[in-house]
Amino acid sequence: MSSLPPVVPQWDHPAWKDVPEFSLLRNEPEPRPSRFPAQIKWMHDGRKLALLLRVDEPDPVVARNGGRDSNVTNDDHFAIYLATSGSAYLEIAVNSVGALRDARATGPRYQRSTSWNANIEVITDIRYQHWIARIDIPLAECAAALGETGIPADWRVVLVDRKSTRLN
């Protein structure tokens, strides 16, 4: 695609209408759909990876952390893990209020460091029983953080929709 849609958290935005959506399955031996699924649309222009997410949540949405590199993985969040080899990976986690944690992990024990800060654009919108996020990830910055000299054609990608542990 030559240009990406504007960075707005709008699931029914006209620029995304022809982009197919997909959902994640549970991480178990015989995967089944999540009770509260996330729908994902993604595209890239060769320079940025753009994701549009619609994450179903039971009320209330849990978002206790805010700010850059806060512990958003303790909240309801969506994470993207990027790698080009097995020696390092990047974690990009976003919660429903738009807090972002971007970290780089290197082996052999994959020590994670939040000192890596990419020019990632995030905007979110909380709605009744779901939240929407638009995330733009600069591929050149990600490739450089992974030790690549240019933007590789092949990436390893893991997507995770995680609900926080709720106290009853």
From the spread of the alpha carbons, the general shape counts as globular
**Roughly how many Å apart are the termini?**
46 Å
Spatial arrangement of strands, main beta sheet: 1-2-3-9-8
Query: Main beta sheet, described?
Result: 5 strands, antiparallel
Alpha carbon gyration radius = 16 Å
Residue fraction in strands: 35-45%
Q: How much helical structure, as a percent, in the residues?
A: under 10%
Instruction: Please work out how many helical segments DSSP would assign.
Output: 1
Q: What does this protein look like?
A:
The protein is mostly beta strands. 4% of the residues lie in helices and 39% in strands. A five-stranded antiparallel β-sheet has the order 1-2-3-9-8. It has a five-stranded antiparallel β-sheet with strand order 7-6-5-4-10, with helices on one face. The longest helix has 7 residues. The radius of gyration is 16 Å and the shape is globular. The termini are far apart.
Topology, element by element:
Layout: E1 22-23, E2 38-44, E3 48-56, E4 77-83, E5 88-95, E6 100-106, E7 111-113, E8 121-127, E9 130-138, H1 139-145, E10 156-162
Antiparallel strand pairs: 1-2, 2-3, 3-9, 4-5, 4-10, 5-6, 6-7, 8-9
